[in-house]
Amino acid sequence: MPFADHDLARRVEDAWAYLGVENARAQARLDPRSQAASLPVGGGYAVFMGAGSPLSQVQGVGLYGPVDDEELGQMEAFYRERGSPIQLELASLADGSLLTILGRRGYRAYEQTHVLVRPVGAREPSAVGGSAHDRRADARSSEVELARVEPGEVVTWAESVLRCFFEDPMELPRPLLEGAIAMASIPAVSCWLARVDGRIAGGGAMVIHSRLALICGDGTLPEFRSQGVQTALLRARLDHARRSGCDLAVICTPPGSSSQRNAERQGFQVVYARTLMGLE
């Protein structure tokens, strides 16, 4: 496993920042009215994805040295001019002074995620020794059919993944749907659908940046949970990352969640945390 130092964090956060910038470019191309845009700030990027989009976030700030009030002021003006709240993903390995400055400017912590990494090409971990529940899920993952999403399936993929979190199709947030569709058009992104008995069971995505495979966008529909769908999605993307020449895979999960457990069973380990900071 790579050492959890600043070099590793920079590599991971650079991939997140790259995804944000490319997503904004794709959104601006698909819908110029969204005014999607990005702004370099503090070694990372502030991204605006359109009015009301929760995908408008700051990524990768503070990993190349201190960030001063002037830069943060420019970033805040970037969002306020667009009528957007400010959301900043702060890595625990960012410059220590940044947390103090953000607190002084009125930022609050809203949620945390764990960043887990795994070398690509390592021997697949064995499920032997896990709980009976884990062994059953692992066995059932072999019954899940995985396929990359073709251009004509992008809307189906985006709607299916969002329905993992919003059961009523009428409640699917339009900004999230548009952002997912824009992300799927990025050349470095691959999207995946999982099926059980021919029915869509879930989906996910992966972006490749500088030989790093960033696994994201995972969701399993309620009726297919605990059936090995997430395990199958993880393994398919790890195999694709290996065949694409990646040497490292990354995934972010809620701390202590079933998603973290599933990732650890596939050889991922926690290396640092991210805290979502907000300023209304």
Provide a descriptive summary of the structure in words.
- With 280 residues, the chain is α+β, with helices and mostly antiparallel strands.
- It folds into two domains: 109 residues, no CATH class; 155 residues, Gcn5-related N-acetyltransferase (GNAT) (Aminopeptidase).
- It is 35% helix and 28% strand.
- An eight-stranded mixed β-sheet has the order 4-11-5-10-9-8-7-6, sandwiched between helices. It has a three-stranded antiparallel β-sheet with strand order 1-2-3, sandwiched between helices.
- The radius of gyration is 19 Å and the shape is globular.
In brief, what are we looking at here?
With 280 residues, the protein is an alpha+beta fold. The chain is 35% helix and 28% strand. It has helices spanning 6-30, 69-80, 96-104, 132-141, 154-162, 174-184, 229-243, 258-265, and strands at residues 37-41, 44-48, 58-59, 86-91, 108-119, 145-148, 189-196, 199-209, 212-220, 248-253, 269-279.
The biggest beta sheet is recorded as: 8 strands, mixed
Give me the secondary-structure category: alpha+beta
Mean pLDDT: 93
Assigned CATH class of the largest domain: Alpha Beta
* Spatial strand arrangement across the major sheet: 4-11-5-10-9-8-7-6
Helix amount: 25-40%
Total strands: the figure is 11
Residue ranges: pLDDT <50 for 5 or more in a row? Answer: none
Core attributes:
280 residues; Aminopeptidase; 2 domains; three-stranded antiparallel β-sheet; alpha+beta; 8 helices; eight-stranded mixed β-sheet
Describe the protein's topology:
Blueprint: H1 6-30, E1 37-41, E2 44-48, E3 58-59, H2 69-80, E4 86-91, H3 96-104, E5 108-119, H4 132-141, E6 145-148, H5 154-162, H6 174-184, E7 189-196, E8 199-209, E9 212-220, H7 229-243, E10 248-253, H8 258-265, E11 269-279
Parallel strand pairs: 9-10
Antiparallel strand pairs: 1-2, 2-3, 4-11, 5-10, 5-11, 6-7, 7-8, 8-9
Helix pairs in contact: 1-6, 4-7, 5-6
